[in-house]
TrEMBL record:
Pyruvate carboxyltransferase domain sequence ranges: 9-274
Record keywords: Lyase
InterPro entries named among the record's database cross-references: Aldolase_TIM (IPR013785), Carboxylase_cons_dom (IPR003379), PCB-like (IPR055268), PYR_CT (IPR000891)
EC number: 4.1.1.112
BP term (GO), one: gluconeogenesis
Protein name: Oxaloacetate decarboxylase subunit alpha
Xref: CDD domains: DRE_TIM_PC_TC_5S (cd07937)
PANTHER family reported for this sequence: PYRUVATE CARBOXYLASE, PYRUVATE CARBOXYLASE, MITOCHONDRIAL
GO cellular component, one term: cytoplasm
Organism (species): Waltera acetigignens
Top-level taxon in the UniProt lineage: Bacteria
Molecular function terms from GO: oxaloacetate decarboxylase activity; pyruvate carboxylase activity
Length: 475
């Protein structure tokens, strides 16, 4: 090993975003995060992932918090550490494609409120759906000197996903003007030796830093990181041990220990990390006690590798079958999933494509005839609204589900008119900050409910006690 030059592996900490999103449905409140920020800021992380993904929706919907406020408070506390977010291309953090002016404004507001690195992905790996967000980040960086665009490729398996596919994507990402590449293995499908092969191949075609993100669902993630680091990966995503493993990431302290005394030594202080872990541990115990953390998500689910189905998608499918009293059809649906995926052009299974494929497979099995009924999302995929798939979609299925309809071959957002002014007009009575328009754009109903709650709090009105009939509001 001595002849290998020193290359300390960098660490992105996920405990403030993906770790609690994966284990406790994104329910960690801001007030719990703030007391530990000072210690986390001293660690020397490459970045701390703390925003985006489902945090935006969950803050407004369940925690009655303003996500922008969370970001500003975290930015205030992290004086020396880059903050990172997850961003779903043209869907931003919502569930439909938005016009470019909304994407631009969201990127601008994210960076000006404190985000340094925007990790941008698309559920079909259609780079056209990422270009606008990358351009907006680069434009902001040129003006303000801050902001990095990282393009994430959703890792998946299938005939189309050869090493040539991944290397050609890496080259294209560099040409797009991204600052770095992330391999986003949301289902824990990347096994150790394949990881080494993938990183080596990508390193040969691009000078961009490569980051690896995986989940422990299938039980191989730590070994996958080990091989990837030896193969030259630049950054890995890990979570503090109380919120690591299971459907989350490998544990930060374990990976730091693994590389100690090697050319990849992180140089991070285990004593400091232990203090941070001590802070999170009682909260984890509380989540176990109140049922927010289900021990089921802590184990290894090898079915993920057998069926290439992410854990969240499996649990979704089981509950759909339960509702129909059809749990005995579980294996039929598992066999149907790869067929539906193939019909739809073999997309990666990640939000929202995983839900679309899973639900359609359930319908196909329960109704006894394939595509007898197609969901509106399945139709949208077939029409090309989600973008271009790696393989062509089944013509037979297209003819059955959307006969005679025109299909979209351009980037879907090219068909959308600017919508910021319209959105602003719809919600102006609630607007207290520019960012409110963006919250409304992504989740109109949920944001409006939050704005009403916020107003009641500011006016010290207790909505739960309010006697709305007689207009009496106890303070």
């Amino acid at each position: 090993m001595s002849e290998i030059e020193k290359k300390p592996i960098k660490i992105t900490e996920t405990v403030l975003r993906d770790a609690h999103q994966s284990l406790i449905a994104t329910r960690m409140p801001t007030e719990f995060m703030l007391p530990i920020v000072d210690k986390m800021d001293k660690v020397g992380y490459h970045s701390v992932e703390c925003w985006g993904g489902a945090t935006f929706d969950a803050s407004l919907r369940f925690l009655k918090e303003d996500p922008w406020d969370r970001l500003r408070k975290l930015r205030d506390g992290f004086k020396n550490t880059k903050l990172q977010m997850l961003f779903r291309g043209q869907n931003i953090l919502g569930y439909r494609p938005y016009a470019d002016d909304v994407v631009d404004y969201f990127v601008q507001k994210s960076i000006s409120n404190g985000i340094d690195i925007i990790r941008i992905f698309d559920c079909l790996n259609d780079l056209r759906n990422l270009q606008e967000a990358v351009n907006a980040t680069n434009k902001f960086k040129a003006q303000e000197g801050r902001g990095e665009a990282q393009v994430a490729l959703a890792y998946t398996l299938g005939d189309a996903y050869t090493l040539e596919y991944w290397t050609s994507m890496a080259k294209k990402i560099e040409e797009m003007g991204a600052d770095s590449i992330c391999i986003k293995d949301m289902a824990g499908l990347l096994v150790p030796y394949k990881a080494a092969e993938l990183i080596k191949a990508m390193k040969e075609v691009t000078k961009l830093p490569i980051q690896l993100h995986t989940h422990y669902t299938s039980g191989v993630a730590s070994m996958t990181y080990l091989k990837a680091v030896e193969a030259g990966v630049d950054v890995i995503d890990t979570a503090m041990s109380p919120f690591a493993m299971g459907t989350s990431q490998p544990a930060t302290e374990v990976m730091v220990e693994t590389f100690k005394g090697t050319p990849y030594d992180t140089g991070l202080d285990q004593n400091l990390l232990a203090e941070i872990a001590d802070y999170f541990r009682p909260y984890r115990d509380e989540c176990l006690a109140n049922g927010l953390l289900n021990p089921k998500v802590m184990g290894v689910d090898i079915k993920t590798l057998l069926y290439q189905v992410p854990g969240g998608m499996l649990s979704n499918m089981v509950s759909q079958l339960k509702e129909q009293n059809a749990e005995d059809r579980y294996y039929d649906v598992l066999k149907e999933i790869p067929k539906v995926r193939k019909d739809l052009g073999e997309p990666p299974l990640v939000t929202p494509s995983s839900q679309i494929v899973g639900t359609q497979a359930v319908f196909n099995v329960l109704l006894g005839e394939r595509y007898k009924m197609a969901t509106k999302e399945t139709k949208a995929v077939l029409r090309g609204e989600y973008g271009q798939t790696v393989k062509p979609m089944s013509q037979e299925v297209i003819d059955k589900v959307i006969p005679g309809e025109e299909r979209i071959t351009c980037r879907y957002a090219d068909l959308l008119d600017n919508e910021m002014d319209k959105l602003e007009g719809e919600m102006k009575e609630w607007k207290q900050q520019d960012e409110d328009v963006l919250s409304y754009a992504l989740f109109p109903q949920v944001a409006t409910d939050f704005f009403k709650y916020r107003q009641a709090q500011q006016e010290k009105v207790d909505m739960t006690q309010a006697d709305t009939k007689n207009g009496a509001y106890p303070v």
